[in-house]
Design a protein that fits this description.
Elements lengths: L17 H21 L8 E8 L5 H18 L5 E9 L3 E4 L6 H9 L10 H14 L4 E6 L6 H13 L4 E5 L6 H12 L2 E4 L5 H25 L2 H10 L8
Parallel strand pairs: 1-2, 1-4, 4-5, 5-6
Antiparallel strand pairs: 2-3
Length: about 250
Amino acid sequence: MSKLSDTNKAPVRTTKTGQDVAENAKRGEIDAFLSAVRSIKPSGATGRVLLALDATMSRQPTWDLASSIQCKMFESASRSGALRMQLLYFRGHGECRASRWVTDGGELAVMMSKVSCRAGQTQIGRVLRHALKENEAGRLNAVIYIGDAMEEDADALGAIAGKLGVRGVPVFVFQEGNLPGAEPVFREIARLTRGGWFRFDVNSPQVLSDLLASIALYATGGLKALEARKSSADVLLIGQMKGGKGKPT
């Protein structure tokens, strides 16, 4: 639950600090994302998107900033009125949890704000198997995975990803950092599922926000909706989904 803010008035500041400039820039990025989301025209069907997060300790240095960006953007995306979202995260020693499905991005943001990093191994295989199970229960339009490491059997992950690909469930992988061994496997998961691989850089939240808006549009309207709008992020997403064409971020 969110905490009540202090009602005492802060002192009036007459000069802008570096933090002020950063906050203004962040607000501008969120406003731009809101504009992109408003341009989404739902097809009448409700898209289902699984957001999966690596919450192991290697992501701790940037976790708070990354979570803040993700929360704001999915809260905004839900305002299109055509998305159902589920949060899944793994951390610690075998802990892997999935939330209920929600349509309120604010509710998803609250869930995300309660997650903290704990030491442990990656559980990407469990994420992919969960996606398969959810797709059996009802059409899953997209999986978004945000992580930085890969500590599992690459062939086993490829086999599960292939099953998602056959079922038409694309996985969009956002990789943070450059840990050895992760990128080739992440790219292969994206290729096998006809999804996309992108660099997740917390210093460039606008790129992430634009791509999330494009994924939201795809989840509700398919490739035709992306091809009709053709924003720069739409074109990048289409290129990735059609064989890895287009320059990753």
